[in-house]
């Protein structure tokens, strides 16, 4: 039987068997069938947990079961009063957290931009090994990496070992706020570097050639072309680093040595030792709001198609 | 025979294809031509079954195929980007439609490759990603033919090839159409290819067919200003009609010298708004020798190889016109820039036309 | 004349400086990992000078029963997480990149949002939710929790692959008589298989290295990262650097495989 006869035998309305079976359960037809698992998963274990944080934040102190009708703002009141009166850790926690996140963002930007620029415009050879070296740390557990810094910084640690071998003796910064910032810069640096790298690599080379043709020097090319066109990457990277470093806990715990409190370590403390879920949740709600807003902004800006075309042309 | 009745496609409030009717004879070569965004691709996708029409009916040899799926209707679409399967060899690509029906290829691959003028020995086991544009085009064609479609739909498949290759493939497509008992429906924005290949031409704009007929008919008798301009490079003279009776009109134009009366019918045809005359039907000469002409100043003379384009400006209206003349003519009268002359033509070559939609 | 000779030298020199800077950044990123590796070979009970080479912590790590049970729990979590998130993430990626449907951009935003959440927020929210819903704590809740964070990452990786495929390819196949099953089996999946495999490897490595989510949902189970964390903060043992280093070696190896797969697909 020829293809023509075969196809003819099905004309006009015969849908093939698989598709007909699929049509019976039309809700499972692509794309709905492909979307449903992810949506169900996220509705259950992403939306649910976020809702719990919000709901628990308005529960009376020390409850561990939800009674939505008995809502109260006690937890928020405690935080606000604590911050205003200066008693307790809230004032210090807020200062520490904002300081750490802001400084981390600024330092990560200062370190990443030249690296991203070099990677996008200067590096031709060894590009792949360099890219791999830059992403490797992202795939190792945060606490293991931070612990590596502890081993590096502690008294008689790896730093002393290396410094000693060249006759250097420097005081360690471990268990200070600087050590915590070192940790957060370290952990979140790639989140700054890659968005900037992608945005610089999307700049068409011919644009720079055109700028050079029109008499722009290297500095002018950079200031008037590259810098403004890489702005989306800088914004995404900064939001990323700022939000993620707000959640820094292990860094503070291990490198701050239990002396530096951040919002995340304080939240974790409320859950762990003092078993006060509502208080922890109320502190988490602020973080949650900032995170959600920044996440949506980032995702609205990101164009996957563009990233895919960059990857393909590499 | 393929028959479309009141075919319509709406996207929200925009109408992409508006109540289109046509009939295409089995085995003929039909071309749908129009500017980009005119709805021609939407029309083609409805014929292929990738889009379902908002209203209307498509019938093939009397059978309604409006709602049948692309995989069960005997049409095959050759895409503009060819859409070959990049992970398969040439042979595997061509085998795909045969495999999909669970049938055996039985040496069909070789025949198909020969049909599209590719040497089976050399090409069958090549990876499609290693082919040139023209070769990919031929493989895409062979793959569609392997499906043994009653109707082969082609969506500007030559657009991304160079000019010489386009010419060559155009000729081969016409030959292939003559060889097979398959209807070819070709969509393009390029008038030139439409004129060369087709038996039947549909000019489409804003979702409607504005004119249909043989290439010759449409070229000779464009139905309105849009078609005339689209069909070939033409000069347009806006006119006022002062009198219309007995299938004739009398016009008024401030500077047009010579004949002012033209045949124009039938009575229900919209009021004409312009005279259209093709570039190559006009000449520019120092004195008025034809029955119809307009005083102009020569602006530029461009050598086009075997002809010359003489650009002129109307002294009163500030409009610009172009004449395409033979090189001998131009050198005989030694036209130079800023010369005063007459743009003129034989009145029989004048098309008196309504404005059209666009 | 001197201008001309400068011109050829200066760019070379400046390119060298850029490379030098990148090497510094990489050195910074590698510092803690190398510190771990160095410490893992030191013979002292606590890491201290002078340095003496030993392999005994590696053998201790491999024979310790508590490490073995931690490896066991980690495997029981990360294998289901890998399978589930690869399937769910790939499905999401195919839906987002190969179909058009109303609300598509919202779907992308919601589906990828978990990537941008600090893990501690996800962890503690999940922990309370597990209590409220009666889901409880242990292997299964940990699997579900990690899948929430990792599926979006797989979706991201596979989307990048799938967006590189000719947007008309399914129509072309359907046009030639292929049904949905054939299109998936013979056309779409073979074209994005490299993206799926590297997404799967990413999923496995990320699950293996996850700390925050699992620490909130594990209940009484001890996984490798939580075992290491416990030993870091109380009761140090030199087995920690050795075990952490081993995890790093394996992650590195898998990652290289994944990158090579991605590279092959983008060629």
Can you offer a commentary on this structure?
- The complex is a heterotrimer of chains A (314), B (358) and C (267).
- With 314 residues, chain A is mainly alpha-helical.
- In chain A, 72% of the residues lie in helices and 0% in strands.
- Chain A has two domains: 1-30, no CATH class; 89-310, Orthogonal Bundle (MetI-like fold).
- With 358 residues, chain B is of the alpha+beta class.
- In chain B, 25% of the residues lie in helices and 35% in strands.
- In chain B, strands 6-7-8-3-9-10 form a six-stranded mixed sheet, sandwiched between helices.
- In chain B, a hairpin with a 5-residue loop joins strand 19 (307-314) and strand 20.
- Chain C has two domains: 1-40; 57-266, MetI-like (MetI-like fold), CATH 1.10.3720.
- Helices cover 79% and strands 0% of the residues of chain C.
- Residues 1-6 of chain C have low confidence and may be disordered.
- Classes of the chains: A mainly alpha (314), B alpha+beta (358), C mainly alpha (267).
- At the A-C interface, helix 2, helix 3, helix 5, helix 6 and helix 7 of A face helix 1, helix 3, helix 4, helix 5 and helix 6 of C.
Strand fraction of chain C: under 5%
State the name of the first-level CATH class of the largest domain in chain C. Mainly Alpha
Helix/strand class of chain B: alpha+beta
Order of helical and strand elements of chain C: HHHHHHHHHHH
Question: How many extended strands of chain C?
Answer: 0
**CATH topology heading of the largest domain in chain B:** Rossmann fold
Going by CATH, the homologous superfamily of the largest domain in chain B would be P-loop containing nucleotide triphosphate hydrolases
Query: In whole angstroms, how far apart are the ends of chain B?
Result: 32 Å
């Amino acid at each position: 039987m020829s293809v023509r006869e075969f196809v003819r035998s099905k004309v006009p309305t015969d849908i093939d068997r698989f598709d007909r079976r699929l049509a019976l359960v039309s809700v499972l037809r692509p794309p709905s069938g492909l979307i449903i698992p992810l949506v169900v998963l996220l509705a259950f274990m992403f939306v649910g947990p976020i809702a719990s944080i919000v709901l628990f934040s308005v529960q009376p102190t020390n409850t561990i079961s939800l009674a939505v009708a008995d809502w109260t703002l006690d937890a928020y009141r405690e935080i606000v009063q604590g911050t205003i009166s200066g008693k307790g850790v809230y004032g210090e926690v807020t200062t520490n957290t904002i300081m750490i996140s802001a400084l981390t963002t600024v330092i990560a930007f200062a370190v990443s931009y030249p690296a991203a620029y070099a990677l996008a415009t200067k590096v031709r050879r060894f590009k792949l090994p360099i890219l791999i070296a830059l992403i490797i740390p992202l795939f190792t557990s945060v606490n293991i990496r931070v612990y590596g810094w502890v081993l590096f910084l502690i008294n008689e640690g790896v730093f002393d070992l290396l410094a000693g071998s060249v006759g250097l003796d420097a005081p360690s910064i471990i268990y200070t706020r600087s050590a915590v910032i070192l940790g957060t810069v370290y952990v979140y640096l790639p989140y700054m570097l890659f968005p900037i790298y992608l945005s610089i690599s999307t700049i068409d080379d011919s644009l720079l050639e055109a700028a050079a043709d029109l008499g722009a020097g290297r500095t002018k090319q950079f200031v008037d072309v590259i810098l403004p066109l890489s702005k989306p990457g800088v914004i995404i990277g900064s939001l990323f680093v700022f939000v993620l470093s707000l959640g820094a806990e292990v860094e503070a715990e291990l490198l701050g040595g239990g002396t530096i409190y951040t919002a995340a370590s304080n939240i974790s403390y409320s859950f762990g030792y003092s078993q006060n879920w509502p208080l922890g949740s109320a502190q988490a709600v602020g973080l949650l709001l900032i995170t959600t807003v920044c996440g949506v902004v980032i995702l609205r800006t990101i164009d996957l198609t563009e990233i895919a075309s960059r990857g393909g042309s590499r | 025979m393929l028959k479309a009745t009141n075919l319509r496609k709406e996207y929200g409030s925009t109408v992409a294809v508006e109540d289109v009717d046509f009939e295409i004879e089995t085995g003929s070569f039909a071309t749908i031509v129009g500017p980009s965004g005119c709805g021609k691709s939407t029309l083609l996708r409805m014929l292929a079954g990738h889009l379902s029409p908002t209203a209307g009916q498509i019938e093939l040899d009397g059978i309604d195929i409006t709602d049948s799926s692309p995989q069960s209707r005997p049409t095959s679409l050759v895409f503009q980007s060819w859409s070959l399967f990049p992970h398969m060899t040439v042979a595997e690509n061509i085998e795909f439609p045969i495999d999909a029906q669970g049938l055996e290829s039985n040496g069909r691959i070789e025949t198909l490759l020969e049909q599209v003028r590719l040497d089976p020995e050399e090409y069958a086991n090549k990876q499609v990603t290693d082919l040139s544009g023209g070769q990919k085009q031929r493989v895409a064609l062979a793959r569609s033919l392997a499906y043994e479609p009653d109707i082969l739909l082609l969506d500007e498949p030559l657009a991304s090839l160079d000019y010489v290759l386009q010419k060559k493939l155009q000729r081969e497509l016409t030959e292939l159409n003559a060889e097979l008992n398959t209807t070819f429906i070709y969509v393009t924005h390029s008038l030139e290819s439409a004129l060369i290949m087709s038996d039947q031409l549909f000019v489409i704009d804003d979702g409607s067919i504005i004119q249909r007929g043989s290439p010759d008919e449409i070229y000779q008798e464009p139905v309105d200003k849009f078609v005339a301009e689209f069909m070939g490079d033409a000069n347009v003279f806006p006119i006022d009609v002062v009198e219309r009776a007995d299938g004739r009109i009398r016009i008024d134009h401030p500077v047009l010298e010579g004949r002012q009366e033209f045949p124009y019918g039938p009575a229900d045809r919209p009021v004409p708004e312009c005279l259209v005359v093709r570039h190559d039907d006009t000449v520019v000469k120092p004195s008025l020798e034809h029955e119809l002409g307009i005083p102009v100043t020569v602006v530029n003379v461009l050598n086009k190889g075997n002809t010359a384009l003489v650009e002129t400006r109307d002294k009163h209206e500030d409009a610009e016109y172009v004449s395409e003349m033979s090189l001998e003519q131009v050198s005989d009268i030694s036209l130079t820039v800023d010369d005063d002359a007459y743009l003129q033509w034989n009145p029989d070559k004048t098309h008196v036309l309504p404005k059209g939609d666009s | 004349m001197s201008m001309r000779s400068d011109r050829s030298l200066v760019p070379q020199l400046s390119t060298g400086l850029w490379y030098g800077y990148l090497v510094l950044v990489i050195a910074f990123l590698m510092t803690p990992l190398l510190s771990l590796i160095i410490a893992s070979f030191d013979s002292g009970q606590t890491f201290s000078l002078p340095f003496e080479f030993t392999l005994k912590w590696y053998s201790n790590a491999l024979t310790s029963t508590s490490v073995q049970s931690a490896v066991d729990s980690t495997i029981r979590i990360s294998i289901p997480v890998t399978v589930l998130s690869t399937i769910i993430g790939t499905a999401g990626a195919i839906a987002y990149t190969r179909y058009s449907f109303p609300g598509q951009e919202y779907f992308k935003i919601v589906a990828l949002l978990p990537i941008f959440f600090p893990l501690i927020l996800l962890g503690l929210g999940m922990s309370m939710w597990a209590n409220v819903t009666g889901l409880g704590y242990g292997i299964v809740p940990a699997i579900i929790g990690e899948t929430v964070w990792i599926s979006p990452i797989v979706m991201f990786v596979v989307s990048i692959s799938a967006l590189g495929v000719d947007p008309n390819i399914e129509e072309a196949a359907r046009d030639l008589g292929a049904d949905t099953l054939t299109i998936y089996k013979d056309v779409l999946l073979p074209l994005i298989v490299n993206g799926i495999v590297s997404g799967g490897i990413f999923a496995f490595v990320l699950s293996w290295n996850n700390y925050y989510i699992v620490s909130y949902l594990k209940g009484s189970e001890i996984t490798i990262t939580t075992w290491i964390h416990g030993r870091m903060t109380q009761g140090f043992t030199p087995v920690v650097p050795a075990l952490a280093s081993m995890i790093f070696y394996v992650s590195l190896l898998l990652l290289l495989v994944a990158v090579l797969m991605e590279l092959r697909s983008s060629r």
